[in-house]
Amino acid sequence: MSDLTLYNTRTRQKEKFQAIDADCVKMYVCGPTVYNYVHIGNARPFVAFDTLYRVLKALFPKVVYARNITDIDDKIMKAAAEQNVAIDEISSKFTEAFIEDMSALNIEQPDIAPRATDTIKEMLDMIEALIAQGHAYVAEGHALFDVKSMPDYGKLSNRALEDMLEGARVEVAPYKKYAGDFVLWKPSQENEPGWDSPWGRGRPGWHLECSAMIAKHLGKSIDIHGGGRDLIFPHHENELAQSQCAHKGEAFVNYWLHNGYVNIDGEKMSKSLGNFKTVRALLEKYRGETLRFTLLSAQYRSDMDFSAESIAQAQASLDSLYGTLRKYADIDVDANIEIGSEPAWLALLDDLNTPLAISELHALAKTLNKAEGDNLALQKAKSKLLRIGSLLGLLQADPEAWFTEAWNARANSEELTTENIEALIAERQQAKLDKNYARADEIREQLKAEGVVLEDAREGTSWKRER
Ligand SMILES: [Zn+2]
Asked: 249: Cβ–Cβ under 8 A, 6 or more apart, which residues?
């Protein structure tokens, strides 16, 4: 069995993953603040870490994955006030929507989905421990973390404290000893949600919520903590400070993982995708699996462009792969197929190199198409394709249904749009590369039936409408 290597933000290098307890790996990912629909950029960590969760489960007997729901936050309060509804109406509506969107992206349910409002007691305990150990203080109804009390504060972001404070919007307040001190607890007005505490009625700071939920559900030390790169400072830096100081210096997280940005607000993006930026809106137009494939087509740490073109490319790839699976629908599958030396598996073990794993899926499809007539070879290749697919959260749908539904979606549009035609041409190109000539011919015929004629030339395929 090869080793899993992961890029650790704290050490700034790829490291061999070693579990604290190989019988039970613990992973935590910061979940959504439930005040609106998730944006495709917010969905990226959930897809990336879901893929890691699947890989870990293939490597270790037990994995406990916790992904929280932040259901108390000023953003939720603001949304409730603007819409003139109760706070829990907003938070339950968007929690439900989040769960639905995640499921549409083939994201497995985490083992634990703690809610911040169920963890208030643990938050208060943590603040008391921090105060008792000289890491926090109380001022004007606030409890604040005393940043200067922790000599290595800032080590996760690896930047000088003053630089970090300059970059982040740090609230300057008269009750702070130092501008970088952050809120653990703050007072609530009468009309705001709040809980009783030794420092008056109030509510927790966001950073504290994650620290308390991790301590409650996973323990003082965990293997992996993930999130978007934008969370490194201040959120994760502050989680680290609170947890490590409350637990008397005990290590908090061994591997910090952060995903890159999804560029969607660039001019090109908004033009091609219009308002389709929330997962919910994208799902009106595209399948969840296609969106997941698009996100996985870049390695999780790199920034990526999300556009109608990249979605069309993903759809073409999926159509091609499902086309091969449909062609060999009668071939039996060995669910326990050995994949230990498969290039796609090795790619996943190398800090989740999903683009390489995906190109290896195409290579497996090509092997399948070349194995025509050799039943044993067909069975092996198909089993591997499906097994690797399941680790990526892809290719688990019924291939026949995949095509009927896809064609229905296209048939429902008023006409075959340029975008659809180009997606089909890209799919045909991929089918040819995979030596799936039957599918390539089928696409040519389907387009012809719609009045679109293809002309192949050395520099590529052009097309024109005949009517
Ligand atoms: Zn968090």
From this structure: none
Cα of 32 vs centre of ligand 1, distance in Å, is: 9
Per-residue pLDDT, 266 = 61
- Residue 309 burial (CB count, 10 A): 16
Quick: pLDDT tens for 71-93: 999 999 999 999 999 999 999 99
337 alpha carbon to ligand 1 midpoint, in Å? 37
Q: How are beta strands 5-8 and 13-16 bridged, if at all?
A: antiparallel
**What residues does the ion ligand 1 have nearby, CB within 5 Å?**
30, 210
pLDDT per residue, tens digit, the chain (467 aa), is 579 999 999 999 999 999 999 999 999 999 999 999 999 999 999 999 999 999 999 999 999 999 999 999 999 999 999 999 999 999 999 999 999 999 999 999 999 999 999 999 999 999 999 999 999 999 999 999 999 999 999 999 987 777 777 766 667 788 999 989 999 999 999 989 999 999 999 999 999 999 999 999 999 999 999 999 999 999 999 999 999 999 999 999 999 999 999 987 565 444 556 656 899 989 988 999 999 999 999 999 999 988 888 999 999 999 999 999 999 999 999 999 999 999 999 999 999 999 999 999 999 999 999 998 999 999 999 999 999 999 999 999 999 999 887 655 554 454 577 777 888 888 898 888 888 888 888 888 888 877 788 988 888 888 887 75
CB 159 within 8 A of CB 119: no
Distance 251 CA to ligand 1 centre (A): 17
CA 272–ligand 1 middle distance (angstroms): 32
Pick from 414, 11, 30, 47: nearest CA to 262? 47
CA distances from 452 to 243, 445, 461 (A): 62, 9, 12
Residue 258 alpha carbon to ligand 1 centre in Å: 12
Give residue 30 CA to ligand 1 midpoint distance, Å: 4
Sequence-ordered alpha helix ranges (H) in 135-194: 161-167
Q: Could you tell me the distance, in angstroms and rounded to a whole number, from the CA of residue 461 to the centre of ligand 1?
A: 48
In whole angstroms, how large is the CA radius of gyration of the chain? 25
- Rounded distance between C-alpha atoms, residue 330 and residue 305, angstroms: 38
Question: What's the gap in Å between 123 CA and the centre of ligand 1?
Answer: 13
Q: Which residue has the tokens 């985490």?
A: 110
Phi (first) and psi of residue 359, to 5 degrees? -70, -30
Distance 92 CA to ligand 1 centre (A): 19
Cβ contacts of 278 within 8 Å, gap of 6 or more = 36, 37, 38, 39, 40
Q: How many residues does the chain have?
A: 467
